[in-house]
Amino acid sequence: MSYSGPEASTYGELPDTVAGKNQILIEVKAVSINPVDYKIKNGDIKIITGSKFPKIVGSDFAGIVKETGSSTTNFSSGDRVYGSVSVIFRKPGSLCELLANDPEKVRHIPQGMSFEEAASLPIASLTALNGLRKCGITAGKSVLINGATGGVGHFAVQIAKAKGAFVTATCSSNNAELALKLGADEVTGYGKEDLAKFSDRFDAILDAYGKMDYADVCRLLKRKGTYASTLFMPTSYFSSVLVNLVYDKKLTSSNMRSKREDYEEIEKLFLEKKLKPVIENIFSLEKAAEAFEFAEKGKPRGKVIIKI
Fold first, then answer.
1. Could you give the CA distance from residue 253 to residue 206 in angstroms, rounded to a whole number?
2. What's the rounded Cα separation, in Å, for the pair 204 and 177?
3. What integer pLDDT is reported at residue 5 of this predicted model?
4. Which domains does the chain carry?
5. What is the SS3 assignment for 188?
6. CB within 8 Å of 61: residues ≥ 6 apart
7. What percent of the chain has pLDDT over 90?
8. Which of 17, 106, 124, 161 could cross-link 151 (Cys pair, CB 3.0–4.6 Å)?
């Protein structure tokens, strides 16, 4: 086994996971795929994830508590839970039947939320929430959300609208109806010719796709506006400083923040029916390789789920 595309993936058996005394053993029911997951699977950051195989990938999960460690008090056997696990530092991921995780990284699933919906939330919704927070989105603000029907983008549209913002969404023409259904006030394409009709009008831009041209960003943002990207790289900091000095506009990252209050805000929006995960593609564990291929190259709407 090795890092690579679907041909390098193997479905098989490993010894059952055993939880430590401070951990929870979870029977996984659903896992969602994020860009970080297929980047790890492809070996894009193997200097961090290591080259020891077999390697279990996957971050977001939902399932049922099977056992709790002797020091765990907030969870009981049979509880419906969800959360995420970090696989960056050579830890096993969530794409398995049994997962051991730390209690502080696990949440009870809210009433009325399915395993698939819960698994779709952690990385994508919290990334969207933090990006909008960094953009200073409040009632009356105008925000352009680039890639508005993807994993992060479809959550960002709903969260921004719930905050009272005026939302302009970019997506393909095939997804325009979905963007409007999610709450966008107006929809446009994402090509340069589509963006050319806008000028100096947005308080903020959340680039959920991560590949907007900085020339467009500087033109589209109002003075003191903020651009947050899910693919903001260390090399972008020079550009950020330059744009801030020359244009008085801010470039920053839309990264995941997973504090308790972040989860609580997302759960509240769900319970108030202001946020609904879009899930159109569900794969079985045996077809996980196909799920990863589709998530990376199939331009899915919303989240891709693997059902265990």
1. 9
2. 23
3. 64
4. 6-121+277-307 (3.90.180.10), 124-253 (3.40.50.720)
5. strand
6. 26, 28, 30, 31, 82, 83, 84, 85, 94, 99, 101, 119
7. 72
8. 124
